[in-house]
Design goal:
It is built from 28 helices and seven strands. The chain is mainly alpha-helical and 659 residues long. β4 (455-458) and β5 form a beta hairpin. The termini are far apart.
């Protein structure tokens, strides 16, 4: 009997073990019931290990009419959203603007008279004192006749106003970005040609045009600083000249803009690049230079004309209400951001979901720091402090600051636009001296565009911002497989890891430029950076042009960290849902395909664009952003049977691991 019982017991245990193994190898079905459209673009003729980007998107490349990328779709949809808001918002300010725009289309004589009055005031300037008074007057009206303020955070998480170029029109700043002097000059000439309709002689128009071109080109040199600031945030402090006399001249100009002695003493503002300083010194020297006095006066005439012309359709021939409304709001970003949020935001932007994922990424990153074998305990403490202190601003504020709502009391469109400009300047000035937490969305909505399809990290504030366009359809689409949704969150992790890339790691938890690294840890970190540089140097932008791993290092490091964090979060999500074995693996493959789809871009079809971005963008080309990341993912090698003979193959010991 014992033998029989033993045999029965043995069989029962054996069957139990076999059943357990079978469950592990063949789990109960867990269904991803949501659609996954991105496998339709796979080109099976391409080996994933040779070019995963082409494998994932090959049908798109091969199409005679490629579908638009997510970037292009979102840009189009956001522009349409903006137009709809302008024409349907019931906000009191927008109702006033629409009513006055309609009146202007019927009769713009009052706008024309107000513009003429401002130009006559400038035309009568003949002395330095009059020029400086006119400058202050234009500043008080919300113009940026030579310089403008952009809100920023300085070294130490304090709000500052950075002084940059006064160039305001979209046409001018776009030419500055492209460094296209000939086109810039033609834009200035086109604006000045309208002066004839305002009573200026052809001889005078030629004079104003020449002077405006002269100063506008100096403005563009100064504007380079704003572009560089956007690409590579730096600690902001007041620039001091070697000559105390030059410093006094610069401070005199800053006082004209409204800065106090105490602010100058405490160095709570940024003066920008050498280009800004040179422009300030030239402006301060007009008393000793009659030619400069005339040049700056005429530039201010052009500047006012360029900003006000859209509201005088009988001269500009712009008889479109939507365009006038758009121009009216372009100066007041905070209010424009608020209007778009109220008409679109809460039902369409996945704010809370993204906030939860960001917090999950923070926890995962801190755990990864704790488990690093190449970082000492003292550096880990500092890294954890920075990760814990990082502020997240996602989508839009829970509560708007009603104090920043513009008051519009003008009875004519151009007067109302002037009040919007004045309010925007007051908003930016009000941010001075506050810390990052106090600044909140007052800062980020004042320096960002709701419709911009982007996210960013500011090291001097240790703050991450995800703009609305990035976390709504068609990119962040909860109707699709969660694999596609979590692939989008690689950008969240990307921005988080900018706090710990080759540049961001120089700032501490309070946004101070401080070395918090133990020497041996810094050496190990730099060695890993060099491996990353070398790996990207192996990739091509296009045949015959190799990638520049050093130039793109910071973005590549952020891409790496972002994919690591997003993939880990997605794996945790799959585990919660009960995915195991091959079904788990299929979802990870969807994640990799979705990652490739995010970076589908029209520039991949145009070699000249690839070359332009190679020289002007510190991000890797889209195909290298994808292929470069796949090479570092162990799961990718296993799931796609990548072999040592494949072009993208890296031996396990060569797959750099940072975080």
């Amino acid at each position: 009997m014992k033998k029989i019982l033993s045999a029965v017991l043995f069989c029962a245990i054996t069957m139990s073990m076999l059943t357990s193994c079978a469950i592990e190898d063949n789990p109960a079905p867990v269904t991803d019931y949501k659609p996954f459209p991105y496998d339709s673009e796979i080109d099976n003729s391409v080996r994933p290990g040779n070019d995963f980007y082409r494998y994932a998107l090959g049908q798109w490349f091969n199409s005679s009419t490629p579908s638009p990328s997510l970037f292009k779709q979102i840009n189009s949809e956001m522009q349409q959203l903006y137009k709809n808001m302008l024409n349907t918002s019931t906000d009191p300010v927008m109702l006033t603007l629409r009513n006055q725009a309609d009146q202007t289309l019927n009769d713009d004589s009052k706008n024309k008279a107000l513009l003429s009055e401002r130009l006559r005031m400038l035309e009568q300037v003949t002395t330095a004192d009059q020029l400086f008074s006119a400058f202050v007057n234009l500043q008080s009206l919300g113009y940026s006749p030579l310089f403008r303020l952009i809100p920023y955070c300085n070294d130490g998480r304090k709000g500052v106003n950075v002084v940059t170029s006064g160039a305001m029109t979209e046409e001018v700043t776009s030419y500055a970005a492209r460094k296209d002097k000939n086109s810039l000059d033609s834009v200035v000439t086109a604006y000045c040609s309208h002066l004839g309709a305002l009573g200026f002689s052809q001889e005078r128009i030629a004079q104003i045009t020449g002077h405006a071109i002269e100063i506008e080109n100096l403005e563009m040199q100064a504007f380079e600083y704003a572009l560089e600031l956007a690409r590579h945030p730096q600690p902001i402090t007041v620039t001091r000249r070697a000559s105390s006399n030059d410093g006094q001249k610069e401070e005199a100009v800053l006082k004209m803009m409204g800065f106090t002695d105490q602010e100058l003493k405490n160095e709570v503002l940024g003066m920008g690049s050498e280009g800004i300083g040179s422009l300030m010194l030239n402006f301060a020297d007009v008393a000793q230079s009659p030619s400069y006095l005339e040049a700056f006066r005429d530039y201010m005439i052009y500047n006012v004309l360029a900003q006000d012309l859209p509201f005088v359709p009988s001269i500009s021939k712009q008889a479109n209400r939507t365009d006038m409304l758009s121009h009216a709001l372009q100066y007041n970003k905070y209010y424009k951001y608020r209007l778009l949020t109220e008409i679109y935001g809460k039902d369409n932007i996945s704010k809370q979901q993204c906030q939860d994922i960001m917090e999950q990424m923070r926890r995962n990153f801190i755990r990864r720091i704790d488990n690093l074998d190449w970082m000492s305990a003292s550096t880990k403490v500092e890294a954890r402090k920075k990760a814990e202190a990082m502020l997240f601003f996602i989508g839009y504020p829970d509560q708007w600051n009603d104090k920043l709502t513009p008051v519009v009391e003008g009875d004519v469109l151009l007067a109302t636009v002037t009040q919007l400009r004045q309010n925007a300047v007051q908003t930016i000035s009000s941010l001075r001296g506050k810390n990052a937490a106090e600044l909140g969305w007052d800062l980020w909505a004042s320096m960002s565009q709701f419709t911009t399809d982007n996210a960013f990290y500011m090291p001097t504030a240790n703050t991450l911002v995800i703009l609305p366009a990035w976390i709504c359809k068609p990119r962040f689409d909860n109707d699709l497989s969660e694999a596609a949704v979590y692939a989008v969150t690689t950008t969240f992790g990307h921005e988080f890891c900018h706090g710990f890339d080759a540049s961001g790691a120089n700032f501490d938890e309070n946004g101070n430029y401080r070395d918090w690294w133990a020497p041996a840890d810094k050496a190990a970190f730099q060695a890993k950076q060099q491996i990353m540089i070398d790996l990207y140097n192996q990739l091509e932008v296009y045949p015959g042009l190799m990638a520049n791993g050093k130039y793109t290092l910071e973005e590549n490091m952020a891409d790496y960290g972002g994919q690591e964090l997003a993939l880990e979060c997605y794996k945790q999500r799959l585990t919660e849902q009960g995915f195991k074995g091959t079904q788990f693996d299929e979802q990870i493959k969807k994640f990799f395909l979705s990652f490739a789809h995010i970076w589908k871009g029209e520039e991949e079809l145009d070699q000249s664009l690839l070359e332009y971005y190679y020289h002007n963008d510190n991000h890797s080309a889209n195909h290298n952003r994808v292929n470069g990341m796949m090479r570092l993912q162990d799961d990718w090698y296993r799931l796609y049977d990548v072999k040592p003979t494949d072009k993208l193959y890296l031996a396990p010991e060569d797959r750099v691991k940072i975080w």
